[in-house]
Amino acid sequence: MAKIIVKTERYSYPITIETGLIHNLASFLPLKANDQVMLVTNQTLAPLYLKSLLITLEGNGIKVDHVVLPDGEQYKSLTGLEQIFASLSEKFHGRGTTLIALGGGVIGDLTGFAAACYQRGVRFIQVPTTLLAQVDAAIGGKTAINHAMSKNMIGAFHQPISVVIDLDFLQTLPKSEFISGLAEVIKYAIALDSDFFVWLENNIEDLLARDTTALRYCIRRCCELKAGIVAIDEREENGQRALLNLGHTYGHAIEVAMGYGTWLHGQAVAAGMVMAAETAKLLGQFATADIERIKVLLLRAGLPTHGPDTMTAECYLPYMQRDKKVLAGELRLILPTGIGQSEIRSGIPSHIVIKAIKHSQIS
Ligand code: NAD
Ligand code: GLY
């Protein structure tokens, strides 16, 4: 069993990674008999895993209520949030309650934000069930809902008290969703770790086959990288955590413009990373050969290397200008400076960004 500790100035909590945890989950959670819990999941996951989780929690004397939300990025909204608040209130949950997010990034972000707001803040636990959430969304305390004009626009930093990763969840994950998670995996490698990029080049087929040994190493490495960044920049204040947004400013534009859920988050991030690399190349800081390496790995993973044909390069900008990294009206982008290293850059002229997006579309 792997255990990684996320340690910030004020918080410290474990990420536990193993197989077969679901049936015995209660023993991995910082909960005791008579604790009150609200388990949040969705209509896809409830028939697969809710019963097992209720049995293990209730078997340990924990008082569990649950709320089952509709499935989809479009429910990472005020409506979804309101449903959680209504259930908490109906079942008389007080400040001592703990929310458990059983799901992917959508359920995790939504539940985390509900926990940040309910009675001015209650505890929550992440039980991520997608690759994307296991390597990224469940860790580090970014919680949010979407707004019609921009992704993750309303949210809070609120750290979970524990993250429990059962690799077995990934066996029921649809292929497209698994592949979407690989985009965030590849993001870590491009932004932070060249050795990990080489490991991915050598092991992508094993990952696609969901080989447990490959998954265990990959998820652990991503969690270590994320824990390291969160430890030095929990609230994205000194430019370190922002590096984890490589490809996201372009990708979020795709997600919003196409309508939430049309392009999966990871697909949009994959296309966005190529656009970021093309931007870096136009600025003279990234080699053509490295763009090719990135594109080959994305394609082998089954990910796109350019955005939707229906979006012109020009129509990205209004969405990008609503990005949370915009400072005093100025766009700030995460750009690679090599495989395994990246930086935050501002003052990039719009015509360069547009040209880079066009390059990604034609190359
Ligand atoms: P998701 O939560 O929508 O899950 C994808 C789909 O897979 C859903 O239909 C879900 O019901 C289904 N599913 C989940 N686990 C399953 C399983 N084990 N078996 C079968 N089906 C399963 O999508 P996601 O990719 O996990 O998360 C995307 C979201 O995460 C986006 O909203 C993105 O903004 C957010 N995100 C947040 C952070 C963060 O730091 N907070 C980081 C990255 C992404
Ligand atoms: N997913 C980016 C971050 O957590 O900062």
Q: Name the hetero compounds present.
A: nicotinamide-adenine-dinucleotide, glycine
Q: Which regions contain 5 or more consecutive residues with pLDDT less than 50? A: none
Taken in chain order, the helices and strands follow as EEEHEHEHEHEEEHHHHHHHEEH
Query: Which secondary-structure class do the elements indicate?
Result: alpha/beta
**Per CATH, what is the topology of the largest domain?**
Dehydroquinate synthase-like, alpha domain
CATH architecture of the largest domain: Up-down Bundle
User: How widely separated are the two ends?
Assistant: 43 Å
How many DSSP-defined strands? Answer: 11
Q: Supply the CATH superfamily name of the largest domain.
A: Dehydroquinate synthase-like - alpha domain
Helix content: 40-55%
Mean of the pLDDT scores? 97
Q: What is the class of the largest domain in the CATH system?
A: Mainly Alpha
The main sheet orders its strands as 1-2-9-6-5-3-4
Largest pleated sheet: 7 strands, mixed
Description:
It contains twelve helices and eleven strands. The chain has two domains: 2-171, Rossmann fold (3-Layer(aba) Sandwich); 175-362, Dehydroquinate synthase-like, alpha domain (Up-down Bundle), CATH 1.20.1090. Helices cover 44% and strands 20% of the residues. The model has no long low-confidence stretch (mean pLDDT 97). Helix 8 packs across helix 9 (265-282) and helix 9 crosses helix 12. The chain has 363 residues and is α/β, with parallel strands linked by helices. It has a seven-stranded mixed sheet, with helices on both faces. Strands 7-8 form a two-stranded antiparallel sheet. Strand 7 (142-147) and strand 8 form a beta hairpin. The longest helix is centred in the middle third of the chain and has 21 residues, at 212-232. The site of nicotinamide-adenine-dinucleotide has 30 residues, from helix 3, helix 4, strand 8 and helix 5. Residues 67-179 form the 3-dehydroquinate synthase N-terminal domain. It is an enzyme of class 4 (lyase).
